[in-house]
Sequence to fold (549 residues):
Amino acid sequence: MIRQLGRYRQIVGVLAKYGLGAVVEGAFPPRAEPGIGKGRGETAPDPVYRRVRLAIEELGPTFIKFGQILSTRREVLPRGLVEELEMLTDTVAPLPFEAIRPIVEEECGPIAEAFASFDEEPVAAASLAQVHRAVLKDGRVVAVKVQRPGIRKVIEDDLEILASLARRVERHRPDLVVYNPTGLVQEFALQIRRELDFVQEGKNAAALARNLEDFPRVVVPAIVWEYSGPRLLTMTFIDGVRIDDLDGIRALDVSPTRIADILLAVYLKQVFEDGFFHADPHPGNLLVTRAGSLAFVDFGTVGILRPERRDAFIRLVYGVVDEDTDAVVEAYRDLGIAPRDGTVDLFKDEIYATLRGLGSYEIGMVDIRGVMEEIPETLRRYHLRVPLSLMQVIKVLLFLTSICLNLDPSFNFPARAGPAVRKIRMRQIFSAERLEHMVASVRRQIRDAVELPQTANTTLRKLSAGGVSIGIVSADLADLAASVRYAANILLLGMVAAGFVLAAGLVMLSSERPENPILCGAISTVTFSGFGLAIIIALVAVYLVLTRR
Fold:
């Protein structure tokens, strides 16, 4: 804590600067910054969500990444805050070449021996790494992604602080517990540590390339493994323009409408067929080449969907299209999203009202963006949490809708995606994987049926012998038991303190005093020690009662 006190002060100062001190009052160590939440610096006139974004940008790479990941949690955060977090930029001033040279030479050996040329000026710089253009000895033009020196330690320290703050927020702000701050930080820590592992990023790129090899108009850079490592990744250099640069795309004599079709087809395959998708699809990570191909870059963040979740998500889309509320709720349940028993009917009513508000329900007319925007809002109102991978799917679909409309104003997501999703669905139903799953399921059913008589016989024997016990497990009962144990401990402390006071009092009230002055002094010392110990125990008990829930 002492080592991180300076960083705590910096965080508190930035939050106070943007008028956010009162939001986290009580969440910081008492000596981190005097006067937090007292209004210092809270005269900023900007809307609160904008001030949150500005504060995050000033706090540095860990918090920027945290904000970017939070922007996918549309079922947790208000829409206005999500829109601000989506504006977070990860562009920073590049480091001088001499600062990153040791990392390059650690992974590749002397630069002059590994490369024919190496541009010292980076072509891109972000908070975690910067990218340099280079040429290998065999003539291949490559992009060398180099991790910023010391960034791992900075991030690990900030992760420790974030975890501590999340616990304090949950303890001091019970109204924010519904957002599960601790869970969000744990989720974020897992993801950003994966992004720091460039070997894993290279594997992600290789897997994506294998999955998309049937698309001739899609480019995924090849990884040059002999010049790559945990902190450096070398891949073929992609020269192109950003996918949102319409003028640049037209200047290449490439049809933006054609790029929109490629983008849609590629992502539908990734999400609904492969279950492995590029999960950071902002315009800077998608390029259009001179040959008219779509190129992916930056593979630090990928989404993974298990087969059963892919199937449930497709059923969710069809439930929306068919205005089938029960199908939507069932798909939610299969995705692990279930409202509390007392709110199921209200939840269904709200889903039905949302579907009714979409207008037409033909596959070519459904406003899929409206659906994807409204789904997280409904989940947030019912305090329902969704796995990160599923929110990544929603983010991808929202991005697809926006960027494809930018490329082709006549783009209609349901009309173009519907046939492709149907084909994927049919392939899944009749796939070898599904057949193997069905065969395995039948085998399990047969095995269970064969074992049923023996299981029933064993159970009846235990019942007749009195060897069966029934246990009831309830979260409420567990909480009650914990509360009783806690109260018993506090009561025990009080009784011990009272015992010391009573014993010391009886000794002091005794009319008989030893004639030996040494013995008399020892008794007095023990008596006052008992009083002191009783006071300490009492203070501890009071502190626990006042500070622990």
Q: What stands out?
A: The longest strand covers residues 129-136. The chain is about 60% helix and 10% strand. The chain has three domains: 91-212+219-237, 241-453, 480-547.
